[in-house]
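chain below, 347 aa
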Amino acid sequence: MGLPRCLLVLRGAARGQLENKSKGKPRKQICQVVLDHFEKQYTKELGDAWIRIRDVFTSPLFWQYGVLLNKFSYSSELENNLHLKGYYNLFQETLPHLKGLLKCYISRIPGRFPAQKHQIGKLKEYYLLNAASLLPVLALDIKDGEEVLDMCAAPGGKSIAMLQCAYPGHFHCNEYDILRSRWLKQTVESFIPESLLNIITVSELDGRQIGELHPESYDKILVDAPCSNDRNWLFSSDVQQARLRLIQRKVLSAVQIQLLRSAIKALRPGGTLVYSTCTLSKAENSDVTTQILNSCSNILPVDIREMASAISHEFALASSAQQYELLVLPERGKAWGPMYIAKLKKT
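prediction:
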């Protein structure tokens, strides 16, 4: 099955991001076409909250970045340096059971910690990320020895985070796009020691076919689906491509549902699945989850209100979310997200 054109456009954008890494980062400029589209849609869907979100979206100087420490290359000097710069461990107070497992340092002050370059044969000490992207990993709650699938794994931040939390019996990291898969492999090589590589498989399968290829094979599955990545789309440099994305955005939910149906086939009875996106769009978030729950009799929602309560001091959460879902809304001082998460279980 070939990729729909909408995903080809999305992956073209990813290629542009990779190319920009080597060319240097151009100054971000807002794409008015995308902003106008968001203004209309999100004012309707989010009401007054959109004004606060737009304030963060359109002002990269307000953006915040988390520093995820790599336990396989721990540096006390780095941790001390982060403390001196005013960073603190995001989960130490909110989720104390993660202490020593998942260390992500954040600062109230907007800014970005310097990135580390990839060096062959040397593990990186930390990974820079939007701290909200760790929430799907926390919701999945991986245990040692489990069979785990990260269906849409590139660039690999969530995969790296999962391996900070537990040692799966087998960890399948999949990415359909060849270029993004190369990016994923480089991330794994940069953060995971050779002694653990024997439990990791990196593949380039169409996620929509994994359920047929590997039926009832996994205890935990993350579907961090291709979506209309709001932050990146807002700064599209090619106006024509931006217009095309917005037109093709309408069919993304169909692809997301196909990926989820495949994941359900690949999930063992009793296993859990987390669906996540980095968009605010209701059509790609709660509408997708609702359709799956209404059409799959063997899938039940899993209550994550306890997790939501624990993280609510550090993340701004939409009050409209159901018991089994979260929607992180960026705002000043908590400029994380957007990130949608839904947790489901197979009976």
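Residues 1-6, 12-23 have pLDDT under 50 and may be disordered. The radius of gyration is 19 Å.
thats it, cya
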